[in-house]
């Protein structure tokens, strides 16, 4: 196939896996609504789900999410990024089938644990695959595909969940990994892995497909660069299988330490920006604004907004740069959260807010759009490209583990703060975190737009990049 956008096609096919990730994240929203109805009209358990059961389900998702990246890292190292990503379907399909035949809370907890494992697994596997197939031209755009796939999965569940039966929703979610596995079978293995394994001819064919080349000569220069990189790495590190993926390599060299600091910091601020808190309290914001939309349609509208705003980023990330988008996003998120904090502070002290009842809904819409067009996708785009190739598996694994832990921790912390002090204090705290995120991006984050991967490593190490 000779088409200049083949690598975008491969990236889109790979990110069908993240659609399942989005389905797993959004699943509780419509399903727990069905399972907590006293009428038991669409409840396979025959009993109302308790708050304790829901808490167990959320904890199970987090526990599974911590195991998934470790499994994906091991399989990627031994079988390659393509096989590792394909195997994500082996986790998702049984989990959704289990939820289709679920008859007890115990099975639901087990299924949610497997889905959590699959979510963490996919987030690592797709990041590694995209990072190895992307050319410098499309690297930024491909890094944003993760957010697009995730928000598409969220949108599917938000729009279908309230209007179909419990069983039908599980069938829809199960169809997504089946579709992914079917389409992704036709995508190539990454050239880096093929060269590393000594499959030179297959590496040429993979590069020709990804770059849309008609002749091997068109990709020979890039292939030579990959071979030279692998040769130098093997010469420097001795036995790659024993050393290059070891944790100590992230801390021995200053450049690797800075890459870890930047990526881990971005993941921390991304999860602590408050997106899950905002979505969890969206119904309150709809009520405060006297919006005529009910919670079902309001959630669907938010799903559409998340998806559409995330689709904007690939068109701008390589024009404006990563740091400007992160800075603008941090400022916008802080303003939206501070506005919500001010509104609920006025509400607390019984100040009349009639003329500004539109403010919570406007802030909600602005926050969701800014996050999904900025910090959400751009943070992972940088994580994907900032580590040296041989350290990507362990570096991205640490970031995914951090993402899972930070997400759960901030949600529990803010929920406790809301119960103890009120929504206004929670929003003020999140606004402060976003201000800190902007400061971090301004002072620490490296601009990678227009840089080759080797030039990124040079800048991280403090070497001035000379460009002719």
Given the C-alpha coordinates, what overall shape results?
Answer: globular
CATH architecture of the largest domain: Up-down Bundle
Alpha plus pi helix count: 25
Low-confidence stretches: 239-245
Q: State the distance separating the first and last CA atoms.
A: 34 Å
Sheet with the most strands, sense and barrel status? none
Rg calc? 23 Å
Helix/strand order, N-terminal first = HHHHHHHHHHHHHHHHHHHHHHHHH
Structurally, the number of domains stands at: 3
CATH class term of the largest domain:
Mainly Alpha
Can you count the beta strands? 0
Strand content: under 5%
Give the CATH H-level superfamily of the largest domain.
Answer: MFS general substrate transporter like domains
Q: What's the CATH topology name of the largest domain?
A: Growth Hormone, Chain: A
Helix vs. strand class: mainly alpha
Instruction: Report the helical percentage.
Output: over 70%
Q: If you average the pLDDT, what whole number results?
A: 88
In quaternary terms, these chains amount to single chain
Topology overview:
Elements: H1 6-14, H2 16-26, H3 28-35, H4 51-79, H5 81-86, H6 88-100, H7 105-133, H8 139-160, H9 166-184, H10 191-196, H11 200-211, H12 220-237, H13 240-243, H14 249-252, H15 254-272, H16 275-280, H17 282-288, H18 295-312, H19 317-320, H20 322-348, H21 359-373, H22 375-386, H23 392-421, H24 423-443, H25 453-460
Helix pairs in contact: 1-7, 2-7, 2-8, 2-9, 4-7, 4-23, 6-7, 6-9, 7-8, 7-22, 7-23, 8-18, 8-22, 15-22, 15-23, 15-24, 15-25, 18-21, 20-21, 20-22, 20-24, 21-22, 23-24
Summarize this entry quickly:
The chain folds into three domains: 1-187, Growth Hormone, Chain: A (Up-down Bundle), CATH 1.20.1250; 191-234; 241-467, Growth Hormone, Chain: A (Up-down Bundle). It is 76% helix and 0% strand. It has helices spanning 6-14, 16-26, 28-35, 51-79, 81-86, 88-100, 105-133, 139-160, 166-184, 191-196, 200-211, 220-237, 240-243, 249-252, 254-272, 275-280, 282-288, 295-312, 317-320, 322-348, 359-373, 375-386, 392-421, 423-443, 453-460.
């Amino acid at each position: 196939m000779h088409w200049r956008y083949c690598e975008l096609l491969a990236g889109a096919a790979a990110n069908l896996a993240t659609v399942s990730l989005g389905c797993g994240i959004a699943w509780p929203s419509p399903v727990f609504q069905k399972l907590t109805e006293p009428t038991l009209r669409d409840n396979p358990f025959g009993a109302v789900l308790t708050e304790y059961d829901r808490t167990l389900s959320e904890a199970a998702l987090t526990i599974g999410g911590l195991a998934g990246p470790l499994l994906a890292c091991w399989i990627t190292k031994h079988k390659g990024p393509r096989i590792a990503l394909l195997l994500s379907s082996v986790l998702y399909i049984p989990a959704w089938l289990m939820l289709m035949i679920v008859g007890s809370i115990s099975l639901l907890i087990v299924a949610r644990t497997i889905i959590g494992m699959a979510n963490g697994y996919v987030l690592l596997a797709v990041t590694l695959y995209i990072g190895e197939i992307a050319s410098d031209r499309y690297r930024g755009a491909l890094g944003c595909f993760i957010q697009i796939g995730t928000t598409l999965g969220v949108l599917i569940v938000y729009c279908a969940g309230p209007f179909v039966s419990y069983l039908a929703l599980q069938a829809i979610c199960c169809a997504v990994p089946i579709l992914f596995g079917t389409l992704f079978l036709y995508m190539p293995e990454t050239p880096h892995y093929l060269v590393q394994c000594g499959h030179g001819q297959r590496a040429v064919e993979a590069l020709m497909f990804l770059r849309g080349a008609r002749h091997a000569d068109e990709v020979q220069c890039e292939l030579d660069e990959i071979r030279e990189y692998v040769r130098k790495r093997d010469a420097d590190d001795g036995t790659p299988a024993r050393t290059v993926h070891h944790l100590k390599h992230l801390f021995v060299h200053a450049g690797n330490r800075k890459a870890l600091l930047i990526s881990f910091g971005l993941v921390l601020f991304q999860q602590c920006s408050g997106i899950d808190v905002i979505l969890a309290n969206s119904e309150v914001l709809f009520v405060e604004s006297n919006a005529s939309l009910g919670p079902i349609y309001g959630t669907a509208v938010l799903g559409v907004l998340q998806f559409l705003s995330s689709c904007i980023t690939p068109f701008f990330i390589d024009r404006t740069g990563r740091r400007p988008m992160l800075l603008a996003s941090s400022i916008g998120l802080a303003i939206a959260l501070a506005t919500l904090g001010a509104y609920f502070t006025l509400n607390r002290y019984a100040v009349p807010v009639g003329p500004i009842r539109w403010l919570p809904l406007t802030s909600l819409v602005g926050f969701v759009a800014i996050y999904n067009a900025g910090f959400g996708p751009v943070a992972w785009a940088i994580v994907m490209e900032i580590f040296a190739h041989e350290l990507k598996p362990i570096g991205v694994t640490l970031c995914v583990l951090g993402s899972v832990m930070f997400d759960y921790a901030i949600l529990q912390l803010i929920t406790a703060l809301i119960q103890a002090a009120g929504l206004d204090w929670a929003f003020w705290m999140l606004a402060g975190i976003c201000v800190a995120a902007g400061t971090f991006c301004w002072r620490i984050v490296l601009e990678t737009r227009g840089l080759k991967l080797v030039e990124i490593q040079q800048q991280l190490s403090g070497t001035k990049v000379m460009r002719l």
